[in-house]
Design a protein that fits this description.
mainly alpha
Length: 114
């Protein structure tokens, strides 16, 4: 039973750590997703400044989306999404193991009463 309690406490500690990790990863992902819109606007403005004949918003957006800085931002967003998703599934895994442990303990207590 002492080993089980240690295991349970380790899982709770790991759950806390993973929750913090997930929060950081999710925040980074959200930040990059929102910044992406600002980056497009900045790059559209830059495209118009470099080529004054580029007055159409569609043409400016096309230039902005093809810009290396935008593509680099998308790569960062992809990595942030991957980290957030991975930490979320780790979190769910630990949560599932804790739930299973609690169910097994409740079953044992119920068996003792019979």
């Amino acid at each position: 039973m002492n080993d089980e309690r240690k295991n349970y406490n380790d899982w709770v500690k790991e759950l806390d750590e993973l929750a913090a990790e997930y929060a950081q990863n999710k925040a980074q992902m959200e930040y990059l997703d929102h910044f992406r819109h600002s980056k497009i606007a900045l790059l559209m403005k830059e495209a118009e400044r470099k080529n004054p004949n580029l007055t159409s918003a569609v043409a400016q957006e096309r230039e902005a989306r093809a810009h290396p800085e935008y593509l680099e931002l998308l790569e960062g967003l992809k990595e942030a999404t991957e980290r957030a998703t991975l930490s979320l599934w780790k979190l769910k895994n630990i949560h599932g193991r804790l739930s299973l442990y609690q169910t097994q303990r409740a079953d044992r207590r119920a068996e003792m009463k019979i």
